[in-house]
Amino acid sequence: MKYNYKHCIGNRLRCMSRIVDKEFRATLKDFNITESQLSILFALSSSGKVEQGKIGEILVLERSTVSRNIKLLEKRGIVIKTSDYRPEIELTTKGRELVTIITPYWENIMDNLMAKLGNDGIQLIDSLEEKLT
After folding, report:
1. Which one of 3, 113, 119, 124 has the largest count of C-beta atoms within 10 Å of its C-beta?
2. Euclidean distance between CA atoms 126 and 128, whole angstroms
3. Contacts of 125 (CB under 8 A, 6+ apart)
4. Which phi and psi angles does 79 have, rounded to 5°?
């Protein structure tokens, strides 16, 4: 065998992702929201009304993941979606309020992760992301 299983890049990156997700999940459960949903909310917060497919491109999420999460957020009145062939989505007032409420919690998690990783760790993440895209 050319590689050892413990060196699998995909698995190692998913493990790191799960470690980070665990920190977010602990806080987000109080808001009944997932990490993917939070990413969608933040993307909509900065972009405004946008075609649903564009969110998947921006966040590198599968179309089904975006659709499923948009439906859940729409059901809760956090986003609104047009019925166009290529639907556009945007935050509702309730959604904008949720982003405002969650942001300080997110910033606290980010502060903790930044402290653990330091500038060197962040630069390594930036470098890996650049090499993989």
Report:
1. 113
2. 6
3. 117
4. -130, 160
pLDDT tens digit string along 60-113?
Answer: 999 999 999 999 999 999 999 999 888 999 999 999 999 999 999 999 999 999
CA distances for 77 relative to 33, 70, 85, 97, angstroms: 13, 10, 21, 11
Residues 17-72: tens digit of each pLDDT: 999 999 999 999 999 999 999 999 999 999 999 999 999 999 999 999 999 999 99
Rounded CA gap, 44 and 89, in Å? Answer: 8
> Which tokens in the block code for residue 124?
């390594």
Is beta strand 88-91 parallel, antiparallel or unpaired with respect to 50-51? antiparallel
Give the DSSP H/E element, type plus range, for residue 31: none
Question: What DSSP character marks residue 51?
Answer: E
Contact in structure between 55 and 79 (CB atoms under 8 Å): no
Instruction: Give the whole-angstrom CA distance, residue 30 versus residue 10.
Output: 30
Residue whose tokens read 């007032």: 93
Strands 79-81 and 50-51: unpaired
